[in-house]
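Researcher: Let's run the pair from yesterday's discussion. Sequence first, then tokens, for each.
Model: Starting with the first of the pair.
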Amino acid sequence: YSLLSSLPNSSWDAAYERELQTFEDIGDTGEIWFGEESMVRIIRWLEKHKVPLDSSVLDIGTGNGVLLVELAKSGYMNLTGIDYSPSAIQLSEKVREKEGMSNIKLKVEDFLAPSAELSGFDICIDKGTFDAISLDPSDAVGKRKLYVGSLCRVLKPEGFFLITSCNWTKEELLNEFREGFEILEELPTPKFCFGGRIGNSVTALVFQRK
């Protein structure tokens, strides 16, 4: 996966510009981070816990916006996607138009410095954005702290935060989000075996804001 490598902002833009061109050429939405099963896992959790369909949902680092389209198809009505790459938002707008999903709001936003109107969400979802921030060669520790602060600002008290990561273990994520969040559940992810040891290449957790 490309998200395993640390990409500066310009490289993300270039990657999304390529995906935008491909979408315009052949209608392909591009890469789904962590694959289809990661989206199914998130939607199943929301359905299992009977999260109301009018709950406000924020997709942090929405990329091509495919997760939001799947949420809309599942009946969720109050959906917002943000990304700091304008090319990503352009791509997700085209995907939204193709799917006819007018109830998805899309905005160019830097989550580390969110605008004031980005607040009061019932649910925040992250698939790989925290990973990308964690790999930033310039002050990754400071940026992770900013991320947690932003999350506290945009998510309502008792709101849910669903994170999918391929860089962090459960224990590490518990440590990163110990300020203001408590773990509710670890979601099952594919296991792999290496050198006789079994592990998870992907960690998926549900936190609740205190």
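Model: Moving on to the second of the pair.
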Amino acid sequence: LSLYSSPARETKYVENPQTQLEEGVSRLRHVMEPYTAWCQSLLVCCTFLCINSALCSDFFSEGYEFLQNPPAGFYPRLGVIGFAGIVGLFLARGSRIKKLVYPTGLMGIGASMYYPQQAVAIAKVAGTQLYDWSLQGYIAVESLWKDN
């Protein structure tokens, strides 16, 4: 608590009234606010698309060239892998998890038959990632167990 009392304030803040021009500009800004926000979001999207269009055009042109001159046996392999996915969808009636796991698993098995080196490389990376995640989970559970 203060030992001295503060003097009463006798000043009051008085705001100047707005002119008609200021009121008109304020009304116009409030009316145009949704449209300016839409234009700003459109500008952001267009900028993003323009930056990435060069990357996308390179990607699609390479894909188009690859499909024009595919390696020998590419389309039959693609057909077998796609058919495995359709069979997986047929077998996965009922559960949503089955609809995710069966087609993906059967397509992975089909692709690994035709591309074994790539399948081994993917399996190694997936195995190390799975090991790291399980180790992190074990450490988290262990720390919770020790805290309690």
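Researcher: Give me one sentence on the second I can quote.
Model: The helical segments are 20-68, 74-91, 96-114, 116-147.
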